[in-house]
Protein backbone atom coordinates (compact mmCIF):
# COMPACT_ATOMS: atom_id res chain seq x y z
CA UNK A 1 0.00 0.00 0.00
CA UNK A 2 1.43 3.36 -1.05
CA UNK A 3 0.43 6.05 1.40
CA UNK A 4 -0.40 9.59 0.38
CA UNK A 5 2.43 12.09 0.12
CA UNK A 6 3.02 14.80 2.70
CA UNK A 7 3.13 18.38 1.50
CA UNK A 8 6.17 20.12 3.01
CA UNK A 9 6.35 23.09 0.63
CA UNK A 10 4.34 24.58 -2.22
CA UNK A 11 5.81 22.24 -4.82
CA UNK A 12 7.48 19.56 -2.67
CA UNK A 13 5.67 16.42 -1.53
CA UNK A 14 7.49 13.68 0.39
CA UNK A 15 6.55 10.07 1.04
CA UNK A 16 5.63 9.46 4.73
CA UNK A 17 8.94 7.67 5.22
CA UNK A 18 12.26 8.47 3.57
CA UNK A 19 15.63 6.75 3.57
CA UNK A 20 18.64 8.08 5.45
CA UNK A 21 21.95 7.52 3.66
CA UNK A 22 24.51 8.32 6.36
CA UNK A 23 25.92 4.79 5.98
CA UNK A 24 26.47 5.17 2.22
CA UNK A 25 30.12 6.11 2.40
CA UNK A 26 30.73 6.00 6.17
CA UNK A 27 33.48 3.55 7.07
CA UNK A 28 33.99 4.58 10.70
CA UNK A 29 30.56 3.71 12.10
CA UNK A 30 28.90 1.68 9.36
CA UNK A 31 31.77 -0.19 7.72
CA UNK A 32 31.10 1.10 4.21
CA UNK A 33 33.05 -0.48 1.38
CA UNK A 34 32.72 0.38 -2.34
CA UNK A 35 31.88 -3.29 -2.94
CA UNK A 36 28.52 -2.49 -1.33
CA UNK A 37 27.55 -0.06 -4.10
CA UNK A 38 25.78 -2.60 -6.28
CA UNK A 39 23.47 -3.68 -3.47
CA UNK A 40 22.95 -0.06 -2.41
CA UNK A 41 21.69 0.63 -5.92
CA UNK A 42 19.29 -2.31 -5.54
CA UNK A 43 18.18 -0.81 -2.22
CA UNK A 44 17.49 2.51 -3.93
CA UNK A 45 15.56 0.83 -6.75
CA UNK A 46 13.45 -1.26 -4.38
CA UNK A 47 12.53 1.67 -2.15
CA UNK A 48 11.49 3.91 -5.05
CA UNK A 49 9.52 1.13 -6.70
CA UNK A 50 7.55 0.70 -3.46
CA UNK A 51 6.78 4.41 -3.08
CA UNK A 52 9.58 5.45 -0.72
CA UNK A 53 10.71 8.19 -3.05
CA UNK A 54 12.89 10.58 -1.08
CA UNK A 55 16.38 10.25 0.30
CA UNK A 56 18.21 12.28 2.92
CA UNK A 57 21.93 12.86 2.63
CA UNK A 58 24.61 15.38 3.58
CA UNK A 59 27.68 16.89 1.97
CA UNK A 60 29.76 15.56 4.89
CA UNK A 61 28.48 11.98 4.56
CA UNK A 62 31.39 9.67 3.91
CA UNK A 63 34.55 9.04 5.94
CA UNK A 64 37.67 11.09 5.17
CA UNK A 65 38.32 11.28 1.44
CA UNK A 66 34.90 9.72 0.88
CA UNK A 67 33.11 12.90 2.01
CA UNK A 68 30.28 13.50 -0.44
CA UNK A 69 30.17 9.80 -1.41
CA UNK A 70 26.54 9.45 -0.36
CA UNK A 71 25.53 12.32 -2.65
CA UNK A 72 27.55 10.89 -5.53
CA UNK A 73 25.90 7.47 -5.17
CA UNK A 74 22.42 8.99 -4.92
CA UNK A 75 23.09 10.99 -8.06
CA UNK A 76 24.13 7.89 -9.97
CA UNK A 77 21.25 5.78 -8.68
CA UNK A 78 18.57 8.38 -9.35
CA UNK A 79 19.82 8.98 -12.90
CA UNK A 80 19.94 5.28 -13.74
CA UNK A 81 16.62 4.29 -12.16
CA UNK A 82 13.78 3.49 -14.52
CA UNK A 83 10.49 2.27 -13.15
CA UNK A 84 7.49 3.13 -11.00
CA UNK A 85 7.58 6.54 -9.26
CA UNK A 86 10.61 7.60 -11.31
CA UNK A 87 9.30 11.16 -11.57
CA UNK A 88 8.66 11.40 -7.82
CA UNK A 89 12.26 10.97 -6.61
CA UNK A 90 13.32 13.79 -4.28
CA UNK A 91 16.69 14.43 -2.68
CA UNK A 92 17.24 16.31 0.57
CA UNK A 93 20.78 17.21 1.56
CA UNK A 94 22.30 18.85 4.62
CA UNK A 95 25.12 21.36 4.28
CA UNK A 96 27.71 21.08 7.04
CA UNK A 97 28.40 24.18 9.14
CA UNK A 98 32.16 23.99 8.78
CA UNK A 99 34.12 26.76 10.56
CA UNK A 100 35.36 28.08 7.19
CA UNK A 101 31.82 28.58 5.89
CA UNK A 102 31.24 32.13 7.03
CA UNK A 103 29.33 33.95 4.30
CA UNK A 104 26.06 33.53 2.38
CA UNK A 105 28.13 32.72 -0.70
CA UNK A 106 29.83 29.83 1.09
CA UNK A 107 26.47 28.09 1.51
CA UNK A 108 25.55 28.79 -2.10
CA UNK A 109 28.84 27.28 -3.29
CA UNK A 110 28.38 24.26 -1.02
CA UNK A 111 24.90 23.72 -2.44
CA UNK A 112 26.23 23.98 -5.99
CA UNK A 113 28.89 21.35 -5.26
CA UNK A 114 26.25 19.04 -3.79
CA UNK A 115 24.07 19.53 -6.88
CA UNK A 116 27.08 18.66 -9.06
CA UNK A 117 27.66 15.43 -7.15
CA UNK A 118 23.95 14.63 -7.39
CA UNK A 119 23.80 15.52 -11.07
CA UNK A 120 20.50 17.24 -10.38
CA UNK A 121 19.00 20.06 -8.37
CA UNK A 122 18.42 19.69 -4.64
CA UNK A 123 14.79 19.53 -3.58
CA UNK A 124 15.24 20.26 0.13
CA UNK A 125 18.41 21.95 1.36
CA UNK A 126 19.04 21.88 5.10
CA UNK A 127 21.54 23.43 7.49
CA UNK A 128 23.13 20.41 9.17
CA UNK A 129 23.43 22.02 12.58
CA UNK A 130 23.40 25.39 14.27
CA UNK A 131 26.66 27.07 15.34
CA UNK A 132 24.77 28.86 18.14
CA UNK A 133 26.73 27.04 20.88
CA UNK A 134 30.20 28.02 19.70
CA UNK A 135 30.12 30.62 16.87
CA UNK A 136 26.71 32.29 17.11
CA UNK A 137 27.66 35.08 14.71
CA UNK A 138 28.22 32.48 11.97
CA UNK A 139 24.54 31.56 11.84
CA UNK A 140 22.80 34.50 10.17
CA UNK A 141 25.11 34.69 7.14
CA UNK A 142 24.57 30.98 6.49
CA UNK A 143 20.79 31.31 6.90
CA UNK A 144 20.97 34.21 4.46
CA UNK A 145 22.71 31.88 2.00
CA UNK A 146 19.85 29.40 2.29
CA UNK A 147 17.34 32.18 1.69
CA UNK A 148 19.21 33.24 -1.44
CA UNK A 149 19.18 29.66 -2.73
CA UNK A 150 15.42 29.60 -2.30
CA UNK A 151 14.87 32.94 -4.03
CA UNK A 152 17.16 31.86 -6.88
CA UNK A 153 14.88 28.79 -7.26
CA UNK A 154 17.92 26.56 -6.87
CA UNK A 155 15.96 24.54 -4.28
CA UNK A 156 12.28 23.88 -3.62
CA UNK A 157 12.40 24.20 0.17
CA UNK A 158 14.57 25.10 3.16
CA UNK A 159 15.04 23.00 6.28
CA UNK A 160 17.10 22.96 9.48
CA UNK A 161 18.61 20.13 11.50
CA UNK A 162 19.48 19.67 15.18
CA UNK A 163 17.75 22.88 16.24
CA UNK A 164 15.96 23.27 19.57
CA UNK A 165 12.83 25.37 20.07
CA UNK A 166 14.52 28.65 21.08
CA UNK A 167 17.03 28.49 18.26
CA UNK A 168 14.36 27.41 15.77
CA UNK A 169 12.08 30.33 16.63
CA UNK A 170 14.93 32.81 16.12
CA UNK A 171 15.86 31.27 12.77
CA UNK A 172 12.20 31.17 11.71
CA UNK A 173 11.74 34.88 12.48
CA UNK A 174 14.98 35.79 10.71
CA UNK A 175 14.13 33.88 7.54
CA UNK A 176 10.55 35.12 7.58
CA UNK A 177 11.92 38.68 7.28
CA UNK A 178 13.70 37.49 4.16
CA UNK A 179 10.52 36.06 2.69
CA UNK A 180 11.43 32.41 3.29
CA UNK A 181 9.57 29.80 5.30
CA UNK A 182 11.30 26.92 7.08
CA UNK A 183 9.59 23.78 5.77
CA UNK A 184 11.24 21.02 7.79
CA UNK A 185 13.19 20.37 10.97
CA UNK A 186 15.30 17.24 11.29
CA UNK A 187 16.03 15.91 14.79
CA UNK A 188 17.18 12.71 16.43
CA UNK A 189 13.86 11.17 17.44
CA UNK A 190 12.88 7.64 18.44
CA UNK A 191 11.52 5.63 21.34
CA UNK A 192 14.98 6.06 22.87
CA UNK A 193 15.30 9.74 21.98
CA UNK A 194 12.12 11.55 23.02
CA UNK A 195 14.16 14.56 24.20
CA UNK A 196 13.22 16.86 21.27
CA UNK A 197 9.52 16.56 22.10
CA UNK A 198 9.48 16.00 25.86
CA UNK A 199 12.25 18.39 26.92
CA UNK A 200 12.43 20.91 24.11
CA UNK A 201 8.75 21.20 23.19
CA UNK A 202 9.51 21.01 19.47
CA UNK A 203 6.29 19.24 18.51
CA UNK A 204 4.11 22.09 19.71
CA UNK A 205 6.27 24.78 18.14
CA UNK A 206 6.55 22.98 14.80
CA UNK A 207 2.79 22.45 14.71
CA UNK A 208 2.32 26.17 15.37
CA UNK A 209 4.80 27.18 12.66
CA UNK A 210 3.68 24.50 10.18
CA UNK A 211 7.10 22.84 10.06
CA UNK A 212 7.24 19.12 9.31
CA UNK A 213 9.51 17.10 11.61
CA UNK A 214 11.92 14.59 10.06
CA UNK A 215 12.98 11.90 12.55
CA UNK A 216 16.51 10.67 12.00
CA UNK A 217 17.87 7.54 13.68
CA UNK A 218 14.34 6.19 14.39
CA UNK A 219 15.93 2.80 15.19
CA UNK A 220 18.60 4.34 17.44
CA UNK A 221 21.60 3.06 15.45
CA UNK A 222 19.93 -0.35 15.18
CA UNK A 223 19.35 -1.12 18.85
CA UNK A 224 15.55 -1.03 18.39
CA UNK A 225 15.61 -3.69 15.67
CA UNK A 226 15.82 -6.47 18.25
CA UNK A 227 19.01 -7.76 16.65
CA UNK A 228 20.95 -6.94 19.80
CA UNK A 229 19.10 -8.25 22.86
CA UNK A 230 21.91 -8.92 25.34
CA UNK A 231 25.56 -8.25 26.04
CA UNK A 232 26.70 -11.47 24.33
CA UNK A 233 25.66 -10.09 20.94
CA UNK A 234 26.97 -6.59 20.29
CA UNK A 235 27.92 -4.76 17.10
CA UNK A 236 31.55 -4.04 16.37
CA UNK A 237 32.99 -0.56 16.27
CA UNK A 238 31.87 2.54 18.20
CA UNK A 239 28.34 1.24 18.75
CA UNK A 240 29.60 -1.60 20.95
CA UNK A 241 30.32 0.51 24.03
CA UNK A 242 27.11 2.51 23.63
CA UNK A 243 24.92 -0.60 23.31
CA UNK A 244 26.69 -2.23 26.25
CA UNK A 245 25.61 0.71 28.37
CA UNK A 246 22.07 0.97 26.98
CA UNK A 247 20.89 -2.64 26.72
CA UNK A 248 20.58 -3.44 30.46
CA UNK A 249 18.55 -0.24 30.96
CA UNK A 250 16.06 -0.62 28.10
CA UNK A 251 14.87 -4.22 28.49
CA UNK A 252 11.27 -3.21 29.34
CA UNK A 253 11.03 -1.33 26.04
CA UNK A 254 12.53 -4.14 23.96
CA UNK A 255 10.21 -6.69 25.59
CA UNK A 256 7.14 -4.57 24.87
CA UNK A 257 8.28 -3.89 21.31
CA UNK A 258 8.59 -7.65 20.79
CA UNK A 259 5.09 -8.36 22.11
CA UNK A 260 3.44 -5.60 20.05
CA UNK A 261 5.36 -6.70 16.97
CA UNK A 262 4.06 -10.25 17.31
CA UNK A 263 0.52 -9.01 17.91
CA UNK A 264 0.67 -7.04 14.65
CA UNK A 265 2.56 -9.61 12.61
CA UNK A 266 5.42 -7.14 12.27
CA UNK A 267 9.05 -6.87 13.33
CA UNK A 268 10.34 -4.77 16.21
CA UNK A 269 11.99 -2.38 13.74
CA UNK A 270 8.71 -1.90 11.87
CA UNK A 271 6.90 -1.11 15.11
CA UNK A 272 9.58 1.40 16.18
CA UNK A 273 9.39 3.19 12.81
CA UNK A 274 5.60 3.13 12.81
CA UNK A 275 5.57 4.68 16.28
CA UNK A 276 7.51 7.64 14.87
CA UNK A 277 4.95 7.99 12.08
CA UNK A 278 2.13 7.88 14.63
CA UNK A 279 3.84 10.77 16.45
CA UNK A 280 3.42 12.89 13.34
CA UNK A 281 7.03 12.72 12.15
CA UNK A 282 8.55 11.59 8.86
CA UNK A 283 11.13 8.95 9.81
CA UNK A 284 14.23 8.28 7.72
CA UNK A 285 15.62 4.87 8.71
CA UNK A 286 18.79 3.85 6.92
CA UNK A 287 19.23 0.72 4.82
CA UNK A 288 22.58 -0.82 3.89
CA UNK A 289 21.14 -3.92 2.22
CA UNK A 290 17.96 -5.32 0.67
CA UNK A 291 16.92 -7.11 3.87
CA UNK A 292 16.88 -3.84 5.81
CA UNK A 293 15.12 -2.02 2.96
CA UNK A 294 12.34 -4.61 2.80
CA UNK A 295 11.93 -4.46 6.57
CA UNK A 296 11.68 -0.66 6.52
CA UNK A 297 9.02 -0.76 3.78
CA UNK A 298 6.99 -3.03 6.07
CA UNK A 299 6.58 -0.10 8.49
CA UNK A 300 4.15 1.48 6.00
CA UNK A 301 0.55 0.70 5.13
CA UNK A 302 -0.74 0.16 8.68
CA UNK A 303 -0.89 1.91 12.04
CA UNK A 304 -0.32 0.98 15.65
CA UNK A 305 -3.47 1.33 17.73
CA UNK A 306 -3.74 4.42 19.97
CA UNK A 307 -3.36 2.23 23.04
CA UNK A 308 -0.18 0.65 21.66
CA UNK A 309 1.26 4.09 20.93
CA UNK A 310 0.51 5.21 24.48
CA UNK A 311 1.96 2.03 25.98
CA UNK A 312 5.21 2.39 24.08
CA UNK A 313 5.44 6.09 24.87
CA UNK A 314 4.88 5.49 28.59
CA UNK A 315 7.57 2.84 28.77
CA UNK A 316 10.00 5.01 26.80
CA UNK A 317 9.53 7.83 29.29
CA UNK A 318 10.02 5.54 32.30
CA UNK A 319 13.38 4.11 31.20
CA UNK A 320 16.45 4.67 33.37
CA UNK A 321 18.45 5.73 30.34
CA UNK A 322 17.87 7.08 26.85
CA UNK A 323 20.11 7.61 23.86
CA UNK A 324 22.73 10.34 24.14
CA UNK A 325 21.89 13.46 22.16
CA UNK A 326 23.74 14.78 19.16
CA UNK A 327 26.44 17.16 20.40
CA UNK A 328 25.19 19.81 17.95
CA UNK A 329 21.58 19.73 19.21
CA UNK A 330 20.67 23.18 20.53
CA UNK A 331 17.93 24.31 22.88
Helix-strand makeup class? alpha/beta
Strand proportion, as a percent range, falls in: 5-15%
How many distinct helices? 13
Write down the overall mean pLDDT. Answer: 95
Helix content: 40-55%
What is the global morphology?
Answer: globular
- Main sheet characteristics: 8 strands, parallel
Strand element count = 10
List the secondary-structure elements in sequence, H or E: EEEHHEHEHEHEHEHHEHHHEHH
**Lateral strand order in the biggest sheet:** 3-4-5-6-7-8-9-10
How much is the radius of gyration in Å? 19 Å
Low-pLDDT runs of 5+ residues are none
What is the end-to-end distance?
Answer: 38 Å
In short:
The chain is of the alpha/beta class. It is built from 13 helices and ten strands.
Q: What can you tell me about this protein's structure?
A:
This protein has 331 residues and is of the alpha/beta class. Helices cover 41% and strands 15% of the residues. The chain has 13 helices and ten strands. The strands form two sheets. Strands 3-4-5-6-7-8-9-10 form an eight-stranded parallel β-sheet. The protein has a two-stranded antiparallel ribbon with strand order 1-2. The chain is globular. The mean pLDDT is 95.
Amino acid sequence: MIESKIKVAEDLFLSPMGCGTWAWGNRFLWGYDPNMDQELQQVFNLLVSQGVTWFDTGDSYGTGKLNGRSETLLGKFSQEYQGDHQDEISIATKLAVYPWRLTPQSMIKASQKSAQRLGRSIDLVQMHWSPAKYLPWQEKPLLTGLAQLYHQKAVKAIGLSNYGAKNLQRAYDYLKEKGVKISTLQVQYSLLSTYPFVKLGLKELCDELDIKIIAYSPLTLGILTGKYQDLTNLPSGPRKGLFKELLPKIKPLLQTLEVIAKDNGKTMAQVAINWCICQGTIPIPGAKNLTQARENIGALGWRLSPSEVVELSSIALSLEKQMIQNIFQTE
